[in-house]
Design brief:
The protein is of the alpha+beta class and 120 residues long. Helices cover 35% and strands 25% of the residues. It has a single domain, classed as RelE-like (YaeB-like fold, 2-Layer Sandwich), CATH 3.30.2310.
């Protein structure tokens, strides 16, 4: 079990993953939130088909055709950094790069200001 699951906040104070989830249909929102709860409850023990390792400490939640990228932060928390609707078999490289940049920013700055005050 994780202590917290945080949303990454960009330089404008927006929460991209939260906005993505709210843009989904009600049934997709429900599925995504259930996956976030599973992440909180099972943490590092969450595996396929719900979650998978991507690269360089970056993971993905896999609710239906949606992907929510996250990483483990300070061992006891996870940070949700990016989300997409997957439209092909392969994850788009530009989305992986963006998620890794956000991960690096949080890790380099150890900046709690980049995280939503409320978790899931």
């Amino acid at each position: 079990m994780l202590k917290n699951v945080f949303y990454f906040s960009d330089e404008r104070g927006r929460y991209p993953v939260k906005e993505f989830i709210y843009s989904l249909s009600p049934s997709e929102q429900k599925k995504a939130i259930s996956y976030l709860i599973a992440l909180r409850d099972f943490g590092h023990n969450l595996h396929r088909p719900m979650a998978d390792y991507v690269t360089q400490g970056l993971y993905e939640l896999r609710p239906r055709a949606n992907r929510i990228f996250y990483f483990f932060y300070l061992g006891e928390s996870a940070v949700l950094v990016h989300a997409i609707r997957k439209t092909s078999d392969k994850l788009p490289e530009r989305d992986i790069i963006l998620a890794l940049k956000r991960k690096a920013k949080v890790e380099a700055e150890r900046n709690a200001g980049l995280l939503a005050a409320e978790g899931i």
